[in-house]
Design brief:
With 360 residues, the protein is of the alpha/beta class. The chain is built from nine helices and 14 strands. Helix 1 packs parallel to helix 4 (74-86).
């Protein structure tokens, strides 16, 4: 997004929000109307100007998402005004505290979303891990969502932090884009600076399978990613093997009925690690012998209001972190990017470094 786009959008927001609260009653409708005109002008200008977000001549939905997300401010602002109107005393005091809380909360959310990612260290032991891979390190990222909320600079910072993690293999657990295949170019270019010993391997998430095509995978391959579309990848050391099984996200929302169209079965002998986007596919990868499965998709709720509420739990009980069933393990990263709204709350972006150990 150009700075001029952002300035016009912010000005329209300010006219509506601040004008509605501070102007006398008779001027409030004019402020709201002027803000809507500015918003409309911004939307048309941005959608027509940003050709990288257009698909087959049809405007992408990402400008709409931004417009809606920034207007999350307007609802609380108008609510504060309504509360102040019910209290004939100290209205300015109520307005000041209310607006301070709203703007402070939004600033917090932006700060978490675009602040430095957290590096999560995880060490997992398996008695059947081949000795040649004792100490092997995997760097896991997910939900990059390159596009409107994550431009080149943001993606570059995330890629630098990923490279600093110094894993021997980079795993991308899906959702490289937000709305269109063209956005994969941004992620592809940014992560070219990451050079792990065994390369970069990824799977497709629900956002990546735009119109259920493999265009995102094709674009990422041009930038050095090995994309597993229900396929396997073998990494060998001293005649011993790690076998990565990459499952694409299901075309249907009914993930429980999903069955991969596996290519290349039967798998090579070796220690198997599953890669999927949704952690709900863990059981399917366990059926294929995956001792460890790596996933993303949940954003850990993105806005974490637990113990009161976390929207991520509506999707899955595997919200974030490490889970075990028997001798098998699942690790779910809360990811790097945002969808819907460009904020995170009590849910900082994450890069995970997983160290494999041979032992009990």
């Amino acid at each position: 997004m150009r700075s001029s786009h952002l300035i016009l959008m912010a000005f329209g927001l300010a006219v509506q929000g601040v004008g509605w609260v501070l102007l006398p009653r008779r001027w409030k409708p004019l402020a709201a109307l002027l803000g809507l005109v500015l918003d409309g002008a911004w939307f048309i200008w941005y959608a027509r100007d940003d050709r990288s977000l257009s698909v087959s001549g049809v405007w992408a939905l990402s400008p709409v998402a931004t417009w809606l997300s920034f207007h999350l401010l307007l609802g609380p602002v108008v609510g504060v005004e309504g509360l102040a109107a019910l209290l004939p005393w100290r209205r300015r005091w109520v307005r000041g505290i209310g607006l301070g809380l709203i703007l402070g909360g939004y600033a917090w959310g932006l700060g978490e979303a675009y602040g430095p990612p957290v590096l999560t260290e995880v060490t997992l032991s398996f008695p059947d891990l081949p000795p040649a891979f004792d100490g092997y390190r995997i760097t896991l990222i997910g939900d990059v969502h390159g596009g409107l909320y994550a431009g080149g600079r943001t993606l570059g910072r995330w890629a630098k932090a990923t490279d600093d993690a110094q894993g021997e293999l980079l795993v991308g657990a899906g959702d490289f884009v937000t709305h269109s295949p063209e956005e994969a170019e941004r992620a592809g270019v940014a992560f070219e600076q990451v050079h792990p010993r065994d390369g970069r391997v990824g799977v497709l998430g629900n956002h990546d399978q735009y119109s259920m095509t493999d265009e995102v995978a094709e674009r990422l391959r041009r930038h050095g990613w090995v994309m597993l579309l229900d396929q396997s990848l073998v990494i060998e050391r001293d005649g011993q093997r790690l076998v990565f099984l990459g499952s694409r996200h299901p075309a249907s929302e009914d993930e429980t009925a999903f069955r991969p169209a596996w290519e290349g079965k039967p798998w090579a002998d070796g220690f198997r690690i599953g890669i999927c986007h949704s952690p709900e596919q863990w059981s399917l990868l366990r059926q294929e012998g995956a001792r460890l499965t790596l996933a993303a998709h949940t954003h850990a709720g993105q806005v974490n209001l637990s113990p009161l509420y976390n929207a991520g739990l509506e999707r899955t009980r595997y919200l974030q972190g490490l889970f075990r069933e028997g001798a098998d393990s699942l690790f779910v990263t809360r990811g790097l990017g945002c969808t819907g709204i460009p904020i995170r709350f009590r849910c900082r972006p994450e890069i995970a470094r997983i160290t494999l150990r041979r032992g009990h």
